[in-house]
Amino acid sequence: MTLQTTKTHIVHGGTLRYCRHDSAITGTPMTLSVFTPPGEGPFPVLIWLSGLTCTEDNFTSKAGAYRAAVEHGVIIVAPDTSPRGQGVADDDAYDLGQGAGFYVDATQAPWAPHFRMESYVTDELIALVDAGFPTTKTRSVFGHSMGGHGALTLALCHPELFQSVSAFAPIASPTRCAWGEKAFTAYLGDDRAEWVKHDAALLLESGAASGVYDDILVDQGDGDQFLTDQLKPELLKAAADKAGQKLTVRMQPGYDHSYFFMASFIDDHVAFHAARLKG
Amino acid sequence: MTLQTTKTHIVHGGTLRYCRHDSAITGTPMTLSVFTPPGEGPFPVLIWLSGLTCTEDNFTSKAGAYRAAVEHGVIIVAPDTSPRGQGVADDDAYDLGQGAGFYVDATQAPWAPHFRMESYVTDELIALVDAGFPTTKTRSVFGHSMGGHGALTLALCHPELFQSVSAFAPIASPTRCAWGEKAFTAYLGDDRAEWVKHDAALLLESGAASGVYDDILVDQGDGDQFLTDQLKPELLKAAADKAGQKLTVRMQPGYDHSYFFMASFIDDHVAFHAARLKG
């Protein structure tokens, strides 16, 4: 259960490692990237969760996050979005199966044995990173789209693990959009009571993690093609307001769903978390 | 001969366009990206030339250059590295044919009709960009590896077109490395006298563009796997010293040949050119 480094790059004076390990949780090899700033640490950890179709490489090569990581002295970890491989169930569609783990533990066939991304992130990934790198054993979580849903739901369900949470264009309420309904039906079954604890807006509304996070930062492009049908940040905002949870949604004019959007505001998110990880 | 925009993204408040056009020079469709900062301009132009295997997308999505482009108010243009398509000659190797135009005008079969990247950049691309965007009609050029060779040789052979030139890990002397010897033999034939005007070190040594550029900036990772056999910045430095041309080679400790290296120092290069484009 140890990390192997498959590739190393120097970036902005820090060290970026592409890693793999045999996961006890998913029962498959898993891949991730880990960026450590220069110096001996210990450093707090920022976990990035990516969106549909992504591997660990999309964020790593396109988000431009490491300059800010050096500035603030934080480690950034980006895992793959699902188990993968020949023995792992899959679907022809881009929004189910490999590349679409949705950060839940599947209970339904054929997904149940391997698709356990909630436990993978909250149990195994955190422990592996704390064991393998000079961390302060404190961490925050952020992500994009499906990974924004992942960041919000994991932070709301596991508030003891995280100091702060933010998201880019998150799937705010997967029980009320096509992406979420499809994935949750497949992974969790037809009983919608099981879905509720994986829906950020419903979790907020029910008071999950009440009083834990001083603010939650959400950036959303108003030119995002998925805004109206899939993402629905207004449900998140309404739920937060109802629960008395401060949540800042910044509608960014003209921005779309791409990494160009994330690269434009990634510095703000790293700074948001760094202030809370060191405060 | 006009540019069509195929995709638009907002990035750092500016506008990034992926474009295509039918090239009169290559006789094929050509693709490029054009980033314009916010505001009406006119803006000076920075042309990026990419390395082997790249399209216009590698730099565009991975270099993280657009924050600095907004800061300094410059347009950045990144063309594809060669003509492409079914009717265009190609080779199975990554270092010849499509994706490997080497910024020369081929004189040899089967490359001659389409592979004319020197004329493409210096004639057609510049004119297209000046016609289609609010430019000051002044520009500089930079690039990576094969594109670093392209930037240096085009700037040295066409000093009337450019205000400044810089490079990341350029092929400093293609007549004296395997990549260059292979490409020049294929594109230009066996007569090495034809090669000399496409070799940055030999051009510098012969006094090309003497007195035009106050400095030439080169960044080179000392962990670059191609440093010793293919890139040879020491030949460039020796030639510049001999010719009395100021040339700053910064050996960057631990950095490799990847876009992680370029992303780490891209701000310095944009600032280097901006100072000379506006000075």
From TrEMBL, chains A, B:
Gene3D superfamilies: alpha/beta hydrolase (3.40.50.1820). It catalyses: S-formylglutathione + H2O = formate + glutathione + H(+). NCBIfam families: fghA_ester_D. Belongs to the esterase D family. InterPro entries: AB_hydrolase_fold, Esterase-like, S-formylglutathione_hydrol. GO terms for molecular function: carboxylic ester hydrolase activity; S-formylglutathione hydrolase activity. It holds the Pfam family Esterase. GO terms for biological process: formaldehyde catabolic process. It comes from Brevundimonas abyssalis TAR-001. The active site is at S145, D224, H257. Serine hydrolase involved in the detoxification of formaldehyde. It comes from the Bacteria. Its EC number is 3.1.2.12. This is S-formylglutathione hydrolase. Keywords: Hydrolase, Serine esterase. It is an enzyme of class 3 (hydrolase). GO terms for cellular component: cytosol.
